[in-house]
């Protein structure tokens, strides 16, 4: 390894020896998926060189599966009927993932000399954002309309963005409740709440109708629906 200043190089190697034996894992990979889907935790090729034993952990002390000589042994955990090990690549297939499966998974392999190498994978599982309806409260005082719009759902992992006719709300208003004050001269506006997480999103829209009313369909929609109702009667009116 080093031909010159042998003593100095040997000293450095001795200092690094515990790290080389223990095996330093790479920065953990992060996988994001939606609940109900299937996911594969893959290994790096350098982990498979001359290894004779391996273990997948759900947490640092809960084993999912371990194997020697390509013979897997699955432990009696919640994963037992939902995981499958690929003995050739050491990849772990997890089926029908659940939100509670979110964790840092650890793969530990060892070779004939007893040296171990660890690799971590962070798995984040999110439920799809459910359908929701904006809750509204309005109050008119001296021609000014005060509105309180709410779209909160019981999920801490979601983000809220309100959109109006003029575009998305400022970042400081990215919350589940939007308070709006509309003066008499203001034109009709739409207010859309978008709830999202890393895997899905849903939205709902309400429309402001002067002087201080909210509706779930725009005035254009009302006109279209009215025309649909009137069209069948127009020929009858022309014949009479």
What does this structure look like?
The chain has 240 residues and is mainly β. The protein has two domains: 23-126, Immunoglobulins (Immunoglobulin-like); 135-235, Sandwich (Immunoglobulin-like), CATH 2.60.40. Helices cover 15% and strands 43% of the residues. The chain is built from three helices and 17 strands. The chain has helices at 6-22, 219-230, 234-239; strands spanning 29-34, 39-41, 51-59, 62-68, 71-74, 83-85, 92-94, 103-111, 116-126, 135-141, 144-150, 159-164, 167-168, 177-182, 190-197, 200-209, 213-215. The strands form four sheets. The chain has a six-stranded mixed beta sheet with strand order 1-9-8-3-4-5, with no helix packed on it. The chain has a five-stranded antiparallel beta sheet with strand order 13-12-15-16-17, with no helix packed on it. A three-stranded antiparallel beta sheet has the order 2-7-6, with no helix packed on it. Strand 16 (200-209) and strand 17 form a beta hairpin. The longest helix is centred in the first third of the chain and has 17 residues, at 6-22. The model is unreliable at 1-25 and 220-230 (pLDDT under 50). This is CD48 molecule. GO terms for molecular function: receptor ligand activity. Residues 1-23 form the signal peptide. InterPro entries: CD2/SLAM_rcpt (IPR015631), Ig-like_dom (IPR007110), Ig-like_dom_sf (IPR036179), Ig-like_fold (IPR013783), Ig_sub (IPR003599), NK_rcpt_2B4_Ig_dom (IPR024303).
């Amino acid at each position: 390894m080093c031909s010159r200043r042998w003593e100095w190089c040997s000293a450095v190697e001795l200092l690094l020896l515990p790290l080389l034996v223990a095996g330093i894992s790479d920065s953990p990979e992060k996988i994001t998926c939606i609940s109900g889907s299937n996911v594969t935790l893959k290994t790096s090729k350098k982990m498979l060189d001359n290894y004779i034993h391996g273990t997948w952990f759900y947490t640092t002390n809960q084993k999912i599966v371990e194997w020697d000589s390509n013979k897997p042994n699955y432990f009696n955990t919640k994963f037992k009927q939902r995981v499958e090990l690929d003995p050739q690549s050491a990849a772990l297939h997890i089926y029908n993932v659940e939100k509670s499966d979110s964790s840092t998974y650890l793969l530990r392999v060892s070779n004939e000399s007893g040296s171990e190498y660890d690799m971590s994978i962070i798995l984040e599982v999110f439920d799809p954002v459910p359908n929701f309806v904006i809750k509204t409260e309005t109050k008119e005082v001296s021609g000014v309309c005060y509105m309180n719009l709410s779209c909160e759902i019981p999920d801490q992992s979601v983000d809220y963005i309100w959109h109006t006719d003029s575009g998305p709300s400022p970042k400081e208003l990215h919350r589940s409740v939007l308070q709006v004050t509309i003066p008499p001269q203001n034109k009709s506006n739409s207010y859309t709440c978008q709830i999202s997480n890393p895997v899905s999103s849903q939205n709902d829209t309400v429309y402001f109708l002067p002087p201080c009313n909210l509706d779930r369909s725009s005035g254009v929609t009302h006109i279209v629906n009215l025309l649909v109702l009137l069209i069948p009667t127009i020929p009858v009116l022309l014949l009479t």
